[in-house]
Amino acid sequence: MNARWRTLAVALTWLLSVFLVIGGLAWQRTYERAATQERVALAHGLALHAAELRDADPGTARKLGTAAVGIHSDEQTRAGLIDTMIDIYGETLPPETPYEVTVSGDGRIALTSDGHETNVLDLAPWTDQEATEEPGRIPTLKGHKGRSVNTTALSFDGRTALTGDDGGITTVWDLADPAEPARLATMTAGRITEYTNGVKKVALSRDGRTAVIVDHDGVMTVWELADRSRPKRLSTTRSNPVPIRDFALSADARTAVVVDDRRKVAVWDLAAEQPVKVAGLDLDMEFSQSATRTAMSADGHVVLVQRAGRIEIWNLADRAHPVRHTTLDVSFDKLYGTYDMSLTPDGKRVLLAGPGDSGVLWDLSTPSRPVRSAALNGHTREIGSVALGAEGRVALMAGSSGVSFWDLTDLDEIVADPKGASCRRYDAEISEAEWARYAGDADWSAYKSEDADSVSVCRTDWWS
């Protein structure tokens, strides 16, 4: 009997040990889960405070955003810190109320237009870190005799500009000296009627030797600008039986995409003596009801087409057989009705703007898997026009609140490692008073060194 009881006691002891271990592990998992949830809630709370302070107190916003990523790095906290850090690189430029902005491919020159005046901006004081001169006089492109300027274009080097007005006239400008623009010639678009409003879009090839003018009626005129003072008309084509909404041109001026007023999108070959329509994008009914904007990469292989809350990304490597890469949902960025978009020449980055108060950058390096990079804040009202230059290192946005300029040179570094990029620039600390204000009931002692009287936002072992 004693042996039997001893065996039973051992078995019970073993079972009790197993239960204790299982219970301990369960408790540990519950504790760790609760601790993780607390960290996530704290990080998201700090990120929210950072977003709220971004305009009023950028230093504190950056400090709280860095702390949020350090406590718990996820899509929400990283995106918040990226937006806060990028915000530091934005500033307001004159003039105050343009509705359109265009930038040269090299990021050196910009045009801003409010419909009545078109101004030339030399961006060197903002793009050249070694520049010491202050922004000088802003010259105005005069010569449209009271007509409204509808659209503008710049060559890649910023030496040639086009301005198209509501009287059907496009003017060629020499901007070799941005402070002293020279009016070289004029070109006439298609037929102007009481139902149209002159020039709708103008575009230049990368070398500035070819211009394409499209009027509201859909008449597309191709011009040779080898001698800019003597433009030579190469062809005139009725691209659409109805007015157009938007137009995009490849860098070599061989491929064009036209969006018409019936929301149909056509691909044109402009290389022939007479332009030829080679394909139409196969849009479903919902999409075709709302396509309004388009953009194209320099090689003409990547084309974006906008609809309400959606951006279609297309591959035109074979122009006769367009292939849809994917559909980009931007409705959550307040871009349900995208007003404008700008694509870098390599087709790897796009800036979108619409009814919201910010522009949004997307990485299209892998067209089938677009990734949101950052938001460019700074406008209190809707943004009507955006432009990217210098391979995406320069961005401009125009709206009813003015023109914003952004230096995006460090964007890739910041997106890849926002906390590291922040900490390489400075190591800030959160005081006990700030912790109490922004961190709620979170335990102060768990996030600071034992003898410290503040929390270093660049510590990496808070959760260990």
From TrEMBL:
SUPFAM superfamilies per the UniProt record, alphabetical: Putative isomerase YbhE
Keywords for this protein: Repeat, WD repeat
InterPro entries xrefs: WD40/YVTN_repeat-like_dom_sf, WD40_repeat_CS, WD40_rpt, WDR55/POC1
Pfam families: WD40
Gene3D superfamilies (UniProt xref): YVTN repeat-like/Quinoprotein amine dehydrogenase (2.130.10.10)
Protein name (record): WD40 repeat domain-containing protein
Organism of this sequence: Streptosporangium algeriense
